[in-house]
Amino acid sequence: MNKTAQELFYSLIGDAAEYYGANPALALAGKQFSIEAPKESVLLGAIQQRSNFLEKINCVLVKDIKGQLIYGATEKGITGRKTDGRYTATLDASGYVYECQPTDSGVLIPWAKLDQWGHLKDKFASLYAEFVQNQIALDMIKIGFYGTSVGTDTSDPNLADVNKGWIQFVRENKATQILTQGATSGEIRLFGEGADYVNLDELAYDLKQGLDARHRDAGDLVFLVGADLVAKEASLVYKGNGLIATEKAALNTHDLMKSFGGMPAMIVPNMPPRAAIVTSLSNLSIYTQEGSMRRGMKDDDDKKAVRDSYYRNEAYAVEDCGKFMAVDFTKVKLSSGKGTWK
């Protein structure tokens, strides 16, 4: 780092240590420091605000590393009457549990990038925070959709072995809510002749019908859909209407694809390109255990970079599995237009 960037970086560490109540000398030496309440909520909120999607789901702190879901699901109504007293009903929770796993986000920020930020002195701290928190937010989303296991030494490029995400949570707790095949064993065929679903409206509607009956008409349902599926649908619409290039430009793909099956559609960053899910955003949760957060920033001469780390215990949960229906995106096949599927 050049002198300006170095001064700004160490000033940033000092300010962070003071804000979080850490020992400044240890923080400046590159040691990890704990983040305690209420600052935990501030950091979690800052990360959440880096993503429009994360802002709309539940990102909450929990006391225990393992336990019952915070919101959970109930299976019956509580309203009625009795001739011999007041009417009451006992609501049994779903019984689903969360379990936080050690989660370590670490990124190397090259000296060259820090030097660039150093030219914008007043913006150095905000640029640094934005860079790190954006990366963390994107990873949280990716784990939520791709995660299938908790590995000891992780290596999957899609972070599938970091933690069990939302789809895996439902797969393990209510497997009927994950569609694994259509008419052909082991495949879900979309678009074209002989497809299980000829368009995304059909798919979205069928997934909605797979929800528990009490949720099918919920006003907060959304259709989370992967970019490959939307691109294929848009291509077929353009081709079917014989649109020329200028007409295609005028017909905004985002507007064209903003709803399916009577539900608003969302394409989420880092979502599997062939995924399709019907749920409500308030049904998706990420839990972080209180007292588990650690932060650290260190200049690494060997890497010619700054090492930033954020450690915590984290879990993914679907509060009501009956309000979640998805395809197994690894089984989705698209028509090639030549009678084959890939």
Largest beta-sheet details? 6 strands, mixed
List SSEs in N-to-C order. Answer: HHEHHEEEEHHHEEHEHHHEEEEEEEE
Outline, from the CA principal axes?
globular
Radius of gyration: 24 Å
Pfam family, one: Phage_cap_P2
Protein name: Phage major capsid protein, P2 family
InterPro entries: Phage_P2_GpN (IPR006441)
What are its keywords?
342 residues, alpha/beta, Major capsid protein gp5 fold, 2 domains, six-stranded mixed sheet, globular, Phage major capsid protein, P2 family, Phage_P2_GpN
Task: Give a written overview of the molecule.
The mean pLDDT is 92. The chain is globular. β9 and β10 form a beta hairpin. Strands 1, 2, 5, 12, 13 and 14 form a six-stranded mixed beta sheet that branches. A six-stranded mixed beta sheet has the order 6-15-11-8-10-9. The chain folds into two domains: 3-73 and 95-161 and 286-319, Major capsid protein gp5 fold, CATH 3.30.2400; 175-283 and 323-334. The protein has helices at residues 3-20, 24-28, 39-48, 52-56, 111-118, 124-146, 166-173, 200-209, 227-240, 245-250, 253-256, and strands at residues 33-34, 58-62, 66-68, 97-99, 101-110, 178-179, 188-190, 221-225, 259-260, 263-266, 276-280, 284-289, 294-300, 305-318, 325-327, 332-334. The chain is of the alpha/beta class and 342 residues long.
